[in-house]
Amino acid sequence: MISQIIVVFLKEMKSILRDKKTFLFGLIVPFLLVPSMLMIIDYSMKILQNQVVRSINISIDNKDNSFYNFCLAQDNINIIDANDTNKAISAYVKVDADIDQKILASEPFNIEVVNANSSMDSVMSISVLNTYIDVFEKEIIPYIKEKNYASDAERLKQIMLKLNVSNDVNEQVKQQVNEQNNSIDLSSLYFNMLVPMMLILYCCNGSSSVAMDMSAGEKERGTLEPLLSTGANRTSIILGKLMATTVIGVLSGMCTTLGLWGYVMISSSNNKIILSSLQMLSLLIIMLFTAMFFAAVNLTIGVYARSYKEAQTYFMPVSIISLLPTCFTYALDIANIKLEYMFIPIFNVVCIIKEIFAGAINYIHLLIVLISLLVYILLACCIMLKMFKKEEIVFRI
Amino acid sequence: MFKLIEIFNISKRFKNCEALKEVSFNVSNGEIVGLLGENGAGKSTLLRIISTMLNPTSGSAKINGYDLIKDSKLVRKNVGILFGSEVGLYERLTARENLEYFAKLNNMNKEEAKNRIDELIKEFSFEDYADKQVGKLSKGMKQKVAIARSIVHNPSVILFDEPDSGLDFKAANIVFKFMTKCKKENKSIIFSSHSMENIKIYSDRMVVLHKGEIVKQFDVKEYRQKYTDKEINDMLFNLVCGGDIDD
What we know:
The complex is a heterodimer. By secondary structure, chain A is mostly helical. Chain A contains 16 helices and four strands. A four-stranded mixed β-sheet of chain A has the order 2-1-3-4. In chain A, helix 3 links the parallel strand 1 and strand 2. Chain B has a domain at 3-88 and 157-240: Rossmann fold (3-Layer(aba) Sandwich). Chain B has nine helices and ten strands. In chain B, strand 1 (3-13) and strand 2 (18-28) form a beta hairpin.
């Protein structure tokens, strides 16, 4: 039996590796995809950062006050009329109508900054505006109070030059934008959602086309019937196919992981984490088990489907469902991960990936995840074997 | 004459229909039996049962003395099957690799497999393209490789499911020439077809199936001496269309 499993496995591997498309989309693309995606995000963030430092469009509800004039005096702040629909506004500023009187009377006043939209540009602009508000409160208000004079824009500009705050403000703005980049914590977005999503996606997708091709595809091409009429029993045939599917799934998952690792090593971005050898090893082991799980699930789908097309139809929801845990766990604090989460398939993988990226691997969690994955793999294999032995499923009669 | 195929009261029931109803017949060595019937008559189901791909709901069969259910592995060793228009070859493997794969799955050792494959390549004259990927071959070439694949383990029983379906004259001729050769080698052959003409020409005995039942089986040579072609055709037409006819 073992020799026949190996015969089937070797034949499938030979067949897979001769298919350039599988090689390209199963191994090369996953290797390049994660680093490319992270590089593109970093690059677009840098462009946005420079743009925000250069100029921001805001709208202020009350004019003719010291804050309005202060903003007007800034080279990189464009004040836009809120009713002007031709220009995109990044932030709205609500200022008390009697702000100057309140400043002079040393009463509390209100300057509120509101998001114009949910874009990253708006988030960064608000951060920049807060820097200006800070400068206004620290540098300008004492001067206004001292001189007992709510200045106009031209006077304020001269005051700022006199106080030598203009350069300071610009420096502070740049610094603030940089800090903002870090405080947005893209690494959190990367490593809590995007990267786990990519890793899961490629463990799942990497083996899907291969699994469908060697099960439903064989039915469609009429190669399954001659195969079933050979001396090999069905268990050997399906286990050989499972081994080949697993190898491709694992290679695909590994390529994604190694691509990520390569990016982490060479990137100069702030949005990166350092993975130790132990973290990397833990990640590779988890990816291995996850790929095995998906290989078994994908092959089960392929065995059930009448044709390649039907298998693809079943595979779509599986692919989407497998990505949902990455969204559910995005906001999950790794310190509060419950033990029972470690038994939920895929959800447990995402949780443990988060722990690995945070450098806070709980080895009991890791062990539970590996054991539970092994149980799910065996369960999927049992279902697949049972289905492959049922003539009404294999021949769909 | 030795009965290589013995089928006793085989029935097969799928969810909503009875595909075969107590089918019984024998095939001796060196005999070609033609299965005639319309679509859904149960021809393919019967061949799949004989090749152990499907289990009968009731009844039994012996292939070369081996029980279909109890000795299914040994039965498979004795049976080669070829599905008509679907050559069922792996396109990314070469013709030789396809044969090697099936030889290994039929538990042939390396030396034995190599000799047999070389012999088949020579016999079917595909030395020129034996090491080309099957996907790059013409339909006729593929048909030769598929036949070689189905007999790589040298079975004593060969089953052909509609071997003439979807094939041009040249490719179909390859199959029928091969059938005649197997007959000379004392192998038992069952082939199913929609074509009355091909069955009349190539089979020794004809089994007519209608809605899963054998409605007639007769010696083709005997009938051709007794009746005109037109009379045989009319009789077969009535049988496969559900009518009945007296001898």
